[in-house]
Amino acid sequence: MADTATATRTIPFLTRLTRHRVPVHALEAAGAEAGGRVVRLNMGPFRPYLVTHPDHVERVLTTNQANYLREGMFWDPLAPLLGKGILSDGENWAESRRILQPLFTARHVNAMAENMARIMDELIDTTIVPGQPFDVAKGMSAIVHPVIVRLFFGAKISLEDINRLVPAYDVAVTAKALRLVLPFVPEQVPMPGDRAFRQAIKAIDEVVYPRIAEARAQRQEGDDVVSRLVRARTQDGGADVDRRIRDDLVAMHGASTETSTTALSWVWPVLQAHPEIAAKVYDEVDRVVGDDPVGIGHLPRMPYLKMFVSELMRLYPSGWILPRTAIATDVIGGVTVEAGSTVILSPYLTHRLAEFWDRPTTFDPERFAPDGAAPRHRYAYWPFAAGPHVCLGQHLFAMEAPLLIAGILRRYRPHVHLDRPPVPRLASSLRPPRGLTMTLEARR
Question: What is the edge-to-edge ordering of all strands in the sheet holding 412-416?
Fold first, then answer.
């Protein structure tokens, strides 16, 4: 890249954090001040580079992707959970990608869709009690997790094991949140959440490893992800095969459930905050689905719901912060990024750049109308990352999200118990605040 290095501006992030008290809002303020330029964030002894402009995102995630590894901030604390498979780098990542990619193509996901819709319809019936308030995040998790678990594990997993996995994953992705804003604290220094994180990993492994052994004992019969991974890894051979299967399975399961649960938790406060948009969503679901169970055949006839989900992922991308470590010195946007430095990318911030989005903080599904505005920069919208590491589960989410939303709205109308706009809480994903509740009333 033929950039000429210039002086780098530093933004006092800890001052912003003290002022805003909400890490996501502090980062949003820093992104607005940067205005698409590459800046450094002063976080005391830790000063990462903030990269938000689509041209610069493209450089990190695509054109010079090999120089920016998923190491350091964010990744190292989660390493015991994610392992060295599909969410790592290098040879392990390439091998895992080769094995897993066929399982998440649009064609394969479409083949699973009717089964997914059926399972989801059953879970909505058995999970939701109309007229009774319930925790939004837990309610979405209670539907999403069993759907993904059954698709991944097939009939090889019991309800008891599902009930162990759900809270364990929830703890694992939230317990290390404090280290996101204090990445300079060594792992050997105890921090709140460390013990809960270790216990969650133990619970996950106690469920996953026996399922791997069971699939191998049954000669890997079946189309579930465990059986396919065991078949593929057994053919490849090599040391520590079970650990590789475990890492791929846990990483993909965690990414699939966390993205969906987090995004779907934002659906309901957004609908309540925008009644005119909600009316269009309700009307489309009523006309297309009616009282029938939602199926894959309904989805092409609900374009507004698809636009709604796309806009939801613009303003509330689950993976809101994606750090990388620079292996060699590089120049991004005229700024020299030294080898060993941390680069922070954030679709949450890129999706709010006024240069690329009109009224960037306004929720407007019409942005994604098929005959809408002029084409935008390819990297102005990247809720599922981009480049070689683009999320494998994006087709699964594109099918799962409208199926679940329509499945709930064909029966109920939501009322979220809120007296102010919800504030994202600190976690590895963009989660709504704790204790957010709603009531679902039967649709008349």
Answer: 134-135, 437-442, 412-416
Question: What Å distances lie between residue 161 and 206, 244, 444, CA to CA?
Answer: 9, 21, 37
CA nearest neighbour of 87 among 104, 70, 67, 73: 70
CA distance 220 to 362: 49
Q: What does 335-353 look like in DSSP terms, one character per residue?
A: EEE-TT-EEEE-HHHHTT-
CA distances from 359 to 245, 315, 347, 352, 404 (A): 45, 12, 16, 9, 29
Length in residues, the chain? 444
Are residues 411 and 121 in contact, defined by beta-carbon separation less than 8 angstroms?
no
Query: Hey, what are 238's tokens?
Result: 């090599």
**Which tokens hold the place of 162?**
């599902």
| Residue 193 DSSP class | T
What is the full DSSP assignment across 23-72? HHHHHHHHHHHHTTS-EEE-BTTB-PEEE-SHHHHHIIIIITGGGEES-S
User: What is the pTM for the complete model shown?
Assistant: 0.90
Which DSSP symbol is given to 287?
H
pLDDT, averaged in runs of 10, over the chain (444 residues): 64 77 83 93 89 97 94 82 82 84 82 86 90 92 85 73 82 76 77 89 91 79 77 69 88 82 95 97 96 92 97 94 94 95 95 95 94 82 92 89 95 92 81 91 86
